[in-house]
């Protein structure tokens, strides 16, 4: 993967294999004395029972520069929350498990409802949003990183390379986005990025014309990676979707709030693999089908907010343009895979392109039916202005859960 290519929109920081992870860790530990570094781990309870998370904790236990780890726990009852506290207790860093389904956090949700502040539907975005709020309420961290809990190829170098660009005070970057190749089991993976995001961005440019925003998104080698690192001043005014549009939504916020020169993408690892979602052709509320709808909606809403006018004719044209573009790119992916001794199921991927094409129309219809829907969770700045005690009360709620039920 190593090369010297720069696209001109955002900086690309490559892995040229000339600095060891031990050196990176040493530098970050020195930096961490004055610039505290935190980590957010959004987790479903089911991930505690998988193969990836125990290995992730093994690697994190070796990391000396992390000041705090905040784990957001979704879909857990009381017994599962107790088990989660025990499960994460081997982390040597200061850490906390936010029980999002617990009665105290539900009371925080109710207070938001009473203020007409909607934290969005249950999902990764909402989980991350509450973790960010907790980290801000602690008011002692300079840099926060985020990554998923299902990375089966995880090692500590991934985290070190992710946080280094924003932790290093000599760098200007406010946000870093990770990228990597998606290869596993002898196959070329990354289906949604390859078969939806790349072709729809090309198709949007053909249909609605040049947009700096589209060029910005196309600059990222893996726009759907779940790995981000940000300097804390970015967080209070961050608007993110609560659903599968989180990654695209976060990049959109970087486009809105930061100069492109303040954003970088960084090569994290030679290979990356995680839990693979089912396609769910029969149920658009699940799996990659749901993901494709959420991502498309996030794109349409951001472009509409920037002045793009969408009509049914535009969506029909976009569907046709996307379909042809995706098939053309599939030829390239197949050649790339074959040259590298990897497999692609051409029939299955063409079926997925057909599904995504239909889901573009579905997302367009959802947008047309309710164009005034609020696309993002409100910012924590708004929450704090509406209720100046809520963030501190959230800290107390999490601490009370830990005292009552934790270990």
Write the layout of secondary structure elements.
Blueprint: E1 11-13, H1 21-32, E2 37-44, H2 52-60, E3 66-74, H3 78-88, E4 94-99, H4 103-114, H5 124-138, E5 143-146, H6 156-167, E6 175-179, E7 183-184, E8 187-188, H7 191-208, H8 212-218, E9 228-231, H9 246-257, E10 263-267, H10 287-305, H11 312-339, H12 346-369, H13 380-386, H14 390-405
Parallel strand pairs: 1-10, 2-3, 2-5, 3-4, 6-10
Antiparallel strand pairs: 5-9, 6-9, 7-8
Helix pairs in contact: 1-6, 4-14, 5-14, 7-8, 7-10, 7-11, 9-10, 10-12, 11-12
GO molecular function, one term: transferase activity
InterPro entries: Nucleotide-diphossugar_trans
Protein name: Glycosyl transferase
CATH top level label? Alpha Beta
Structural domain count: 1
Write down the oligomeric state. Answer: single chain
CATH topology: Spore Coat Polysaccharide Biosynthesis Protein SpsA, Chain A
CATH superfamily: Spore Coat Polysaccharide Biosynthesis Protein SpsA, Chain A
What order do the SSEs take from the amino end to the carboxyl end, as H and E? EHEHEHEHHEHEEEHHEHEHHHHH
Shape: globular
Considering DSSP H and I runs of 4 or more, what fraction of the residues is helical? 40-55%
Q: Count the DSSP helices.
A: 14
The largest pleated sheet is described as: 8 strands, mixed
Q: Average pLDDT across residues?
A: 93
Rg on CA atoms, Å: 21 Å
Number of strands: 10
Structural class comes to alpha/beta
Distance between the termini: 44 Å
**Relative strand content:** 5-15%
Name the CATH architecture: Alpha-Beta Complex
Low-confidence stretches: none
Strand order of the largest sheet: 1-10-6-9-5-2-3-4
GO molecular function: transferase activity
Organism: Actibacterium pelagium
Protein name: Glycosyl transferase
Keywords: Transferase
